Amino acid sequence: MKLVTAIIKPFKMDDVREALSEIGIDGMTVTEVKGFGRQKGHTELYRGAEYSVDFLPKIKFEIAIKDDFADRVVETIISSAHTGKIGDGKIFVTDIESVIRIRTGETDDEAI
Questions:
Q1: Which range (35-39, 69-73, 78-82, 94-98) has the least confidence?
Q2: Would residue 63 be called left, alpha or beta, if left means φ above 0 and alpha means ψ between -120 and 50 degrees?
Q3: Which CATH number do you get for residue 8?
């Protein structure tokens, strides 16, 4: 099993969610997060005063899937979140040791 974690631009959230639904992803966790990468934030102007925004708003998707589906999920996220501009985000794929569905006690692939 794999955990795909994607950090993307907020305005791409609906595009990514819809694209994942189209390939059969039934469940995911989506969180509003803040962070920065190479872009190191930016400056903005508010009421005539300039200020620095160090942490930019992002959206984090977390999707637990079977191993053989990971590449397709990653490709779908890339194609639906890509803008070609700095700050498009990152995708992390990690191994999951165990999954347990609390309600039924199902484990691993059956719990996903």
A1: 35-39
A2: beta
A3: 3.30.70.120
